Amino acid sequence: MDPIILSLLLGLSHGIEPDHVATARLLRSRWKIIQFALAHSAGFIIIAIPLVILIGDNKFLEMISDIVGIIFSILLLVQAIFNKEIDIGANKAGLLQGAFVITPTKVLVIVIASTGYTLLYSIEIVSSFIIASAASIISLSLFNLIPKRIYKIVDIGIGLLTMAYLIFLLVS
What we know:
This protein has one domain. 80% of the residues lie in helices and 0% in strands. It contains 8 helices and no strands. The longest helix is centred in the N-terminal third of the chain and has 27 residues, at 30-56. The chain has helices at residues 3-15, 18-27, 30-56, 59-82, 94-100, 104-113, 119-142, 150-171. By secondary structure, it is an all-alpha fold.
């Protein structure tokens, strides 16, 4: 599967995670929801790009990041199957949440983006995640189209696709 498409799917999945839905519903104002989504994206990019650069230049770190990505894709599956949210880190809104809350979808995107691509293409992968994530937070929240259990199905599918992709990268 193309890394950009996988990143877009991960971003859509990330945007409908329960903490984002809850935060967006608490904000009520359309402008505040948009600000939250954009700040959350900015927070993630502050962390993601340096990590992609660091990992992308080191084959050993790249292999380790693939293994970490497989572990986090398993966590994504566990999260979806058992309906238990897995967040590691600070639980703040916006910029802090985007930068410091580590979720399986974020780790997977960093791992995919750091897997031997040019820096520009890696930035495109991270950017596609950010765009899809912000768009899903904004659209699902503003239009109140948040199905109660859809994130479970999406997370299971994306977790399996990501695990297969990363195992393929390790084997090849």
